[in-house]
Design goal:
The structure is a single chain. This protein is mostly helical. It has eight helices and no strands. The longest helix is centred in the last third of the chain and has 25 residues, at about 125-150. The mean pLDDT is about 85.
């Protein structure tokens, strides 16, 4: 858009949400730094001892996704999948769990936070209000996804 010179650069720059851009940059810097820490290696080892079945992978990823958000959870589980499971189905279980777990709570996905913040001037959605819908939706989605992945 800037190359065509038909639109003034100021108009383009005004459309960019720099706070969101900084949030994502910071998120990936923190996650990469965490990946290099000793705590991360201990955490991966702990998950390796706990995560032995597809169901435990789905459960632990869904839980972690709602503590640190789904994108960081995938980055944390990446070495576990790559080093110990490394099957296409394990990657599918991880994708399933992290995606649907994002619906459980407001913190489950950065997208949820962005939407709730954007709507805050018009409507107030609290944590418990969101959870009332998110919990059954997430449980049913995860159950259906696990069943479908096991069938195929």
């Amino acid at each position: 858009m800037l190359i065509t010179r038909r639109i003034k650069p100021e108009k383009v720059y005004n459309l960019i949400d720099f706070r969101l851009l900084i949030l994502f940059i910071g998120l990936f810097i923190v996650i990469k730094s965490f990946e290099k820490s000793a705590l991360f290696n201990e955490m991966v080892e702990a998950f390796r001892d706990f995560v032995k079945t597809p169901l435990s992978l789905v459960f632990s990823c869904a839980l972690l996704s709602n503590i640190v958000s789904n994108v960081p959870a995938v980055l944390i589980f990446k070495p576990l999948i790559a080093n110990w499971f490394n099957t296409e189905k394990a990657w599918l279980y991880l994708a399933l769990a992290s995606t649907f777990a994002g619906n459980l709570t407001i913190l489950g996905s950065i997208t949820n936070i962005i939407v709730i913040e954007g709507a805050s001037s018009r409507v107030k959605i609290g944590f418990l209000e969101y959870l009332k819908v998110g919990l059954p939706l997430t449980v049913l989605s995860l159950m259906a996804g696990v069943i479908i992945l096991n069938l195929f």
